[in-house]
Amino acid sequence: PTSVAGIYESVKRWQKSHLSSCQAVPETIKNEITQLRSDANWVPTTRQYWADSAKSLGMVDTVDGIRFERDPRSLPVMVSHSQPSSNIEDESNSDKISEGGHIVIPSDQELVPPYVYFLMRQVEMCRFTEADRFVARSKGPVGFAGFQCRHCAGHAGLGKYYPASSKRLATNSTSQNIHAHILKCRKCPIEIKQELELQKSRKLKLPGLTPGWRRTFFEMVWKRLHG
Length: 227
Description:
three-stranded antiparallel beta sheet; two-stranded antiparallel sheet; 5 strands; globular
């Protein structure tokens, strides 16, 4: 493509005219792409999405074609959550969450059923960007706090959530959406998926939980995100 705006059409032409006939592309790769296209109903198809995503990576139009306005190697690196990171917040401080940090902490285990706690430990705080506007189903302002799958970091917008209020955060549908994503996430270890299913099937509840525990708990989580 000669411009950022032309990336969308170029990708379409490449998929339609070249990919299927290219003998250098292994059949396994072709089959995987076909499978991803059939499974991923969330994949954005707007020209604006492709243009905004390119710009968020630092790609710009110049007289010599598309160029990076900054070194691509300086782009943020996805943090591996299998090892402790100095960027993750001190979990003893329940009033402060940094990007990439858990939105629930160990002391929360006394406030919610084991399943809810384990489920919410699979996400991390993130902030809304322009690139999210077409894939995260949100109209929030840039910088708005939300959370994403901590295994894939909300790759391509899938597994990112930006509830507009504490009430929406506390709904069963939000939990169901997170659960569904974790089970499909290719980056999530199978052990996590199995434990999640086990916790859900047990339906364990803490003896001291009051009927309004969900609303109370998620209001607290909301304050952590937006306080």
